[in-house]
Amino acid sequence: MSAKTPFINVLISLGDDHLILGHRLSEWCGHAPMLEEDLSMPNMALDLLGQARNLYGYAVELEAEGRTEDDIAFLRTDREYKNILMVERPNGDFAHTMLRQFYFAVYMQLFWDDVLANGDARLKEFAAKATKELAYHIRHCGEWLVRLGDGTEESAERMKAAVDALHPYTNELFDITPDFNTCIEDELVPNPETLRKDWNTAIQQIFRQAFLVVPNVQFPQTGGRTGHHTEAFGHLLSELQYMQRAYPGLTW
Amino acid sequence: MVARAAVDFEESRAWTIAAAVPDPEVPCVTVADLGILRSVHIEKNTVIAKLTPTYSGCPAVLAIELAVETALLEAGFDARVERVLSPAWTTDWITKDGREKLREYGIAPPVNGSASKLSLFGKVDVTCPRCASTNTEKLSEFGSTACKAHYRCLSCSEPFDYFKCI
Ligand SMILES: [Zn+2]
Description:
The complex is a heterodimer of chains A (252) and B (166). By secondary structure, chain A is mostly helical. Chain A has helices spanning 5-26, 35-63, 69-74, 85-88, 94-118, 121-149, 153-166, 178-185, 196-209, 231-240, 242-246. Chain A has 11 helices and no strands. The mean pLDDT of chain A is 95. In chain B, the strands form 2 sheets. Chain B has a 4-stranded mixed sheet. In chain B, strands 1-2-3 form a 3-stranded mixed sheet. The relative contact order of chain B is 0.14. The chains are: A mainly alpha (252), B alpha/beta (166). The interface between A and B is medium-sized, with 27 and 25 residues.
C-alpha cells in the first residue's frame, strides 16, 4: 500500500458508480417508451461511461502497476466493485430510471462544483467537462419528474412508488469510507457531508413541482462502498463482463 | 535563423494537414472548424497535435485522433496525437466558417455565448437552417449524437438537428 492507495480506491469507487449506472441506462436502448428517450438515455449513458473512463484512467496511471482501465472495468470480481447500491438496482420502470438519474446527477453536479473550487488538479479537468454534461441530465430528468408527478393518476402513482423504493438508497451517496476520509483530509475531494444540504434543497425544489414528498427513511440501504452488493449485481456483471471473460484479452 | 524558419514552415504545413481532417459524425466540418484541434507543433522532428474531446464519452474521439495521426503520417511527418481536457471544449470555439458550414449542411449552429450557464438553459432562439425562421420548437434535448438536439420548424415544418450549446 502506497500513500496514493486511498485516492486510487476513491477514484475507482467513483468510476464504478458511473460505469454501473451507465450500463443500467444503456439497457434501455431499444426499449424506451418513445424514440426521443431511446436517444436520450444512451446519450446520458455515454457521458457516464466517458466520465468513468477518466476516473479509471487516472487511477491506473497513479497506480502505475500495468493495469489498464479495461482491467478495472471488466476483470474484477463483484466484491471488488465499490459502487453505491442505488446504481446497480434493476431499472424498474421509466419513473424509477429518471428519478435515480436525477438523484445521482444532482449529487455529482455538487461534487464536481466543489472539486472545481478546491479539489485535485486533474479532477478539476474532469469536472469542467462533467458539470456541463450533468446540467443537461438534471434538466432532462427533472422535467420528467415534474411531467410524471404532475401527470396522470397512473404516472403520479408510479413516480411516488419510485420515490419510496429509491430514496432509502440515497444516503449512501454521502457515505464516507476510511479511504474517502483520507482524501478529504488531503483536500483531494470534497466532503460529501457538506453537499448534503444543497442536495436536499435541490430534491425538495423539484419534488414540490412534481407533487412528491420526501419520505422519512427508517432504514437507509448501504453496502456497495464496502463491496457488499445486491443479488442483481452478479447478473449485471455477467453481462457487462461477458466478452472479456469469454475471449480474454479481446480487443477491437 | 534559417532552421527556425524551416520549423515554422513545417509546423504551418502540419497544421494545414491536421486542420483539414473532417469530423466523422458531422463530416461537413473539420476538426479546426469545430475548435477541437487545439495546437500543432514540432518537437525533435515529431509533430505533436493536441486535440480535445467535445463530450467526455464522445465515441468519435478515438476515430478523430487516429484520422489526424494518419493524415500527418501520410504527409510524411513523424506524428503523435495528445488528448487535452483542459480548458474544456465549448461550442463557442466553433469558427464562423464552421457555423456557416453546419447551417448549409442542415444543422442549426449553436447560439453564441454558450459558456455562460444562462445560455445553456435560458431560452434561445434557434433558427431553422432551411428557411431561417425563428419560429421553431424543441422536440428532444438529445439527438442523433451527444452534441445535437432535435428541433422542428413551425414555418416550413422541417425537422432539423441543432448543435447544442455546451
Ligand atoms: Zn424552416
